[in-house]
Design brief:
This protein is α/β, with parallel strands linked by helices. The protein has one domain: Aldolase class I (TIM Barrel, Alpha-Beta Barrel), CATH 3.20.20. Helices cover 33% and strands 28% of the residues. The protein has ten helices and twelve strands. An eight-stranded parallel beta barrel has the order 1-4-5-6-7-10-11-12, surrounded by six helices. A hairpin with a 2-residue loop joins strand 2 and strand 3. Helix 1 runs parallel beside helix 2. The longest helix is centred in the N-terminal third of the chain and has 11 residues. The radius of gyration is 17 Å and the shape is globular.
C-alpha cells in the first residue's frame, strides 16, 4: 500500500515562520531553516514552505530565505507564495524547491497551470486552494484567504486538474487553526471529482484527528498541519507509530 504522507507547513512572513487561526492573528514561531532541518530529521515525508504575504503585498517570494531553508531539507519541498508566472516557477525551482504551489496566481491567470505543467511536468505543479463555506457553497478565496473570488471551489479544482495540476492542497479556512479536526465533508467533495493526490490542510489538533482523517477519508493522500507540529502538541514519530497501530501505512525512520 502507498504510505500516507505527513507534511508540516511553514507559513513564512518577513523571513519568520508564523501561525494564526482562520488565517488571522499571526504570531511568531521560529526561523524557517531551523524548523525545516528539525522536520527533515524527525521523519516528515515532505515539507511545504508558503510565503504567506507575497501575493497580498504584490511582491516576489523571498528567495534568500527559501535557499537557506532548502539547504536544510532532504525530503521533497513544495514552495508557494507570489507565484504568478512560469518565471516564478523557474526561480523557486532553482532555489531548491521540488514542487511549486500556485494559488492566487492561478485565479488571476488560469492558463498558468497549463503553461507550467507543459514546461516542468504535472508532478511539479501543485494547486493550493483556500476554501470557505459561503451561503452553503464551497467558495475559493484569494490573497491568503482575504478575498472571496465568487468561484465555486469544486469545479475550480476539477478545472485545475484538467489543465495539468498534479496535486491538490485543500486548505479549509473554516477549520484552519481551530484544532477540531479536518474538514472531511470538503475533502470528500474534492476527491469525488479528481484522481490526483489530494492533501488535507486545516484543523489538525491531535494525533486522533489524523487517524480519523485517514480512516474516514481513505482516498486522501496526506495530512498537512502547522501549529500542532510547531508547538510540540503532536510529534511526527508518535503520530506515525499510532498510524501503524491503526493499520494506516506510514513511513517510519529506522534508527
Amino acid at each position: 500500500m502507498i504510505t500516507k504522507r505527513i507534511i508540516p507547513c511553514l507559513d513564512v512572513r518577513n523571513g519568520r515562520v508564523v501561525k494564526g487561526v482562520n488565517f488571522e492573528g499571526l504570531r511568531d514561531v521560529a526561523d524557517p531553516a531551523e524548523l525545516a532541518k528539525y522536520y527533515s530529521a524527525a521523519g516528515a515525508d515532505e515539507l511545504v514552505f508558503y510565503d504567506i504575504t507575497a501575493s497580498a503585498e504584490g511582491r516576489a517570494l523571498f528567495t534568500d530565505v527559501l535557499r537557506r531553508t532548502a539547504s536544510e531539507v532532504f525530503i521533497p519541498l513544495t514552495v508557494g507564495g507570489g507565484i504568478n508566472s512560469v518565471d516564478d516557477f523557474d526561480r523557486v525551482l532553482k532555489c531548491g524547491a521540488d514542487k511549486v504551489s500556485v494559488n492566487s496566481g492561478a485565479i488571476r491567470n488560469p492558463a498558468l497551470i497549463r503553461e507550467a505543467a507543459l514546461r516542468y511536468g504535472s508532478q511539479c505543479v501543485v494547486l493550493s486552494v483556500d476554501i470557505k463555506r459561503v451561503d452553503g457553497e464551497f467558495r475559493v478565496f484569494a490573497r491568503g484567504g482575504r478575498d472571496d473570488t465568487g468561484i465555486e471551489a469544486i469545479s475550480w479544482i476539477k478545472r485545475g486538474v484538467e489543465n495539468g495540476a498534479g496535486e491538490i492542497v485543500v486548505n479549509s479556512i473554516d477549520t484552519d487553526g481551530v484544532k477540531q479536526g479536518f474538514d472531511t465533508e470538503m475533502l470528500r467533495a474534492v476527491l469525488d471529482v479528481v484522481r490526483v493526490p489530494v492533501i488535507a490542510s486545516g484543523g489538525a489538533g491531535s494525533i486522533g484527528d489524523f487517524i480519523r482523517l485517514f480512516k474516514e477519508v481513505p482516498d486522501i493522500d496526506a495530512g498537512l498541519a502547522a501549529s500542532v507540529f510547531h508547538f510540540g502538541e503532536v510529534k511526527i514519530e508518535d503520530l506515525k507509530k499510532e498510524m501503524r497501530k491503526n493499520g494506516i501505512p506510514a513511513r517510519i525512520l529506522e534508527v
